[in-house]
Amino acid sequence: MELVTVVIALALVEYSVFGMLVGWARGKYGVSAPAVSGDPIFERYYRVQQNTLEVLMLFIPGMWMFGRYVSAEVAAGLGVVFIVGRFLYFRGYVADPKARSLGFVLSFFPALILLVGGLIGAAMKLLG
């Protein structure tokens, strides 16, 4: 489970970096808090951070369940794909929101696999 812990921590570091980039974008594009709109490029940074938070709600418990009940190594591998996917999502979305598809696929589907796989693994353990 140590690999699972490390990958979750890396995903949270990535999310923290996205948050810092939102702060940087606020200054660069002149969007004072608490506003979350005003400049289209700023809004892209903000949406990446918010969309990442939304998918982290699937990813983190999914990683833990999958790692505990199925395989920590496979969970960690899927977690690395998730982190790379989120990075690609960030790059694509900030450049052009239409270019976010690959990053979305490489992060949403691993999170979904981890969650569903973890649920199935836990159910199988429960049933004996």
What report would you give on this structure?
The protein has one domain: Membrane associated eicosanoid/glutathione metabolism-like domain (Four Helix Bundle (Hemerythrin (Met), subunit A), Up-down Bundle), CATH 1.20.120.550. It has four helices and no strands. It has helices at residues 2-29, 40-69, 72-95, 101-127. The two termini are 22 Å apart. The longest helix has 30 residues, at 40-69. The chain has 128 residues and is mainly alpha-helical. 85% of the residues lie in helices and 0% in strands. α1 packs antiparallel against α2 (40-69), α2 packs parallel to α4 (101-127) and α3 packs antiparallel against α4 (101-127).
> Could you give the order of the helices and strands?
HHHH
| Tertiary shape | elongated
Give the C-alpha Rg. 16 Å
How far is it from the N-terminal to the C-terminal residue, by CA? Answer: 22 Å
From the structure provided, what is the oligomeric state, counting identical versus distinct chains?
Answer: single chain
Q: Find the CATH topology.
A: Four Helix Bundle (Hemerythrin (Met), subunit A)
**How many runs of DSSP E, i.e. beta strands?**
0
Kindly state the percentage of residues in helix: over 70%
**Overall mean pLDDT score?**
97
* CATH top-level class: Mainly Alpha
What structural class results from the helix and strand content? Answer: mainly alpha
Number of domains: 1
Tally the helices.
4
Report the major sheet: none
